[in-house]
Amino acid sequence: MSYIYLVPIHLHRSVNLEELTRCVENTFGVRTKTRSFKIDLPGTYDPIRKQYNSSLILRQLIAYPPVDACKILGITAVDLFIPILTYVFGEAQLDGIGAVVSLHRLQNQFYGLPENHTLMKDRLIKEAVHELGHTFGLLHCTNPGCALNASTYVENIDQKSHELCIDCREAIGLR
Ligand SMILES: [Zn+2]
Ligand SMILES: [Zn+2]
Question: In terms of DSSP H, where are the helices of 29-116?
């Protein structure tokens, strides 16, 4: 039996992953385990950009994968970047084991709007399914509403669902 590992990275205790867990399990038909890994987050910080290098976090996440892990998803609240982009909501290995998502830019407060916990949780679930979809080998999908639709801005996330469209489901052998 293999599991999708959900790995909170220095996440505040108030962040509840229950709904995310359920959604991931239902979407991919794989059970999850929530575990802490030893991640050196400060070591991934770029003092010039004042952001965290998501590729370096990803590298640590997958360094010693548990034998029963089919996928490993890190969940963090810090602001992530990859060198060619201003920021990323997350990063994943295409057809690999690891992915990471960040809450940072999913929070209304980041945009100067009133806090909305439900909205943040919904966005996190969509991005988690999105990045995990990449680890299952899915590329970006042009079907509106599909979780694998590319999201550059948070508004794009709000326009899609947390579900995979029929094409994406078929592509990875789900019904
Ligand atoms: Zn993507
Ligand atoms: Zn799709």
Answer: 54-61
